[in-house]
UniProtKB/TrEMBL annotation:
A UniProt-annotated Pfam family: DUF982
Top-level division of the source organism's lineage: Bacteria
Full protein name: DUF982 domain-containing protein
Source organism phylogeny: Bacteria, Pseudomonadati, Pseudomonadota, Alphaproteobacteria, Hyphomicrobiales
Length: 99
């Protein structure tokens, strides 16, 4: 798998109110697989698209759009990190898991 980053990171406000910064499909996939609060159509599509982006099958921005839709489906607040004024130091990045 290759690391693919989004042009604009995504900031998600978790159910506990904490912001979380996602820089690309790897961060999003890890969250979708291990910490996602609810499963639905967009959750499954986002997992598929993130895996495809990491394999180079689709553009990273396709995975970003699916991840955004999954966030909406799960009622998680999402914003562009740059537009929201979130810096790398003000939001906790998604933790990297050893697979």
């Amino acid at each position: 798998m290759k690391e693919a980053l989004w042009r604009v990171p995504v900031s998600v406000t978790l159910q506990n109110g904490m912001p979380r910064l996602f820089r690309g499909p790897y961060d999003a996939l890890d969250f979708l697989e291990y910490e996602w609060p609810s499963h639905g159509k967009w959750h499954h599509r986002a997992i598929r698209d993130c895996r495809a982006a990491l394999s180079g099958i689709v553009a990273a921005e396709v995975a970003r759009a699916s991840f955004a839709a999954a966030c909406a489906e799960a009622s998680l607040s999402l914003s562009d990190a740059h537009a929201a004024g979130v810096s790398d130091t003000s939001a906790k990045p998604a933790a990297k898991r050893q697979h």
